[in-house]
Specification:
Radius of gyration: 24 Å
CATH superfamily of the largest domain: FAD/NAD(P)-binding domain
Number of strands: 21
Number of domains: 3
Oligomer: single chain
Bound molecules: flavin-adenine dinucleotide
CATH architecture of the largest domain: 3-Layer(bba) Sandwich
Helix content: 25-40%
Shape: globular
Structural class: alpha/beta
Mean pLDDT: 92
Low-confidence stretches: 552-570
Largest sheet: 8 strands, mixed
CATH topology of the largest domain: FAD/NAD(P)-binding domain
Length: 570
Amino acid sequence: MIQDADEIVRDAAVHANICIVGGGPAGITLAMTLAKTGKSVLLIESGGLAPSNEAQALNAGEVVDETLHSPADKYRPRCLGGATSIWGGRCVPFDPIDFEQRPWIDHSGWPIGYDDVERYYPAANALCEAGEYEYDARVATPGGMRPVLRGFTPRHFDVNGIERFSCPTDFGRRYQTRLRAAANVRVLLRATATRLRASRDGSRIDGLDVRNSRDVGFSVTAEQFVLAMGGIETPRLMLTSDDVHAGGIGNANDLVGRFYMCHIAGTIGTLRVNGPSDSIWHGYDVAADGTYCRRRFSLRPDVQAGFGLGNAVFRLHHPRIADPGHRTGPLSAIYLAQRFISYEYAKRLVSHTPPTAGTWLRHGLNAATDPFSTIRFLVHWLRYRTLAERKFPSVIIRPRANLFSLDFNAEQVPNPDSRIGLAGTRDRFGNRRVRIDWRYAAQDVETVARSFDLLRDDLAEQAIGRLTLAPDEADIEAVVRRDGAYGGHHIGTARMGASAASGVVDRDCKVFGVNNLYVAGSAMFPTSSQANPTLTIVATALRLADHLGGVATRAPCVGAAEQPEPATVL
Ligand SMILES: Cc1cc2nc3c(=O)[nH]c(=O)nc-3n(C[C@H](O)[C@H](O)[C@H](O)COP(=O)(O)OP(=O)(O)OC[C@H]3O[C@@H](n4cnc5c(N)ncnc54)[C@H](O)[C@@H]3O)c2cc1C
């Protein structure tokens, strides 16, 4: 059942076995999976079926450095489906090394291993509609995928890892029918959780205060609560709920909101390839099931260890759109159309230095002198992106000047000084807004700089091509600052740890010291990997559902040390 919370009367009490707060992919995955257990499940979602200004305003907050991080209400649609209503759909599993305690990265290491999550990836892949769970280019498509650069066998990178693309599936739209049909699932839309009520001794959550869009309050009781509100709102609610736990629930060791990670990502360098144009393939291959797949260059784990770096990948990419020097009509047409592209996607197109009249003119000339490729691109985009059910994932354009750039996605190391806190201002329900203080570390810059150098050397050694940096890219830290925090990935703010000294939640995603409160989503990832987070968010939500399916109706345990046994429900 899906219901509007505005139908609920003041001070009503709503009960369920399990209450999930947040209807993004984490919350929806949990609700659909727990529906199979016969337990009653309540999903509280602050937004409606589509984004609205009213719900979105609740995400507003302070950003300490807006040159580094987007405004707080961007990249986080408040509606059923959460950020999958606008996501790009790139699916990539984490690597085994991401779970390891790496001596060269402080605060690294998960209390669970890759194997604990791996067994949930195939089902997560299916929910994300990313096709078969196969991430090896040699077997992902019939006959294997084309190489990016023919004959390139780099010393420091693996060339066989791929990313697969979801439709991209909007979890709210795709799974609405399933949620409506599940007899034991009740979804309450336009219901904003405003406070967790802890028991007097703090060991349990007795209830959750909720407001509907008319500011009518009601309360929810449940045996188990799961916070699945994304990596920014989850710590916000925990910090706000400070009646019994001074400083916020789960925050006895001042860890909630700390270690805030996004990714270090952007476009860098210019690659002139030596071989003929048919030796280069920077586009997508299509798997037998229709999924778009793409190869990348992945920094090998032993190289990460040898050089003390974080995880990183590179993709061959068209040149930076903002620089008209690419002389490519379709790229300039995109630049000229930036006003019509949503903030989240336009942000990476525009340069951080304001364009001059000359820049606009040169882009206009590019589009005018390259009309056939511009029209071809627009027709392809309309057919395979706008009108297609499974959308062509991104702009792939062969640059006219046969020059490429590199798109990089690098791990951001856990940094306790990078944090989500509470601001002095309040939202319309009287709750303190978020304060985002995102910071990167010297090691993050080093990961980008060193891995770029290694790729440059590999390309030169095998005479594949010449990779250079433009004069304004020579300072890699400036490049990292130019692109800033990668929007949409909000990680680490309620991290999993082996004990309360190092984490907010334990290996079962349960908040230390609070026996019926769990966290789902990338807030609980202790490290960020090179990989986009959603596939792992869904996999770990399936794992949590497996755990909760067995414990929700048991008598609550008393001591923080007591751990219920997980039970398989999948
Ligand atoms: C433009 C963009 C592109 C992206 N591309 C990719 C990609 O290619 N690959 C990838 O892996 N990831 C991508 N992401 C990230 C991906 O969308 C997120 O990782 C994912 O949606 C997070 O899922 P979640 O369920 O944890 O949180 P969210 O999707 O953020 O959902 C949280 C939900 O909680 C609700 N909520 C918040 N506060 C409250 C409250 N107080 N009470 C009740 N409900 C509340 C919100 O309304 C929201 O619906 C992208 C994101 C953006 C914005």
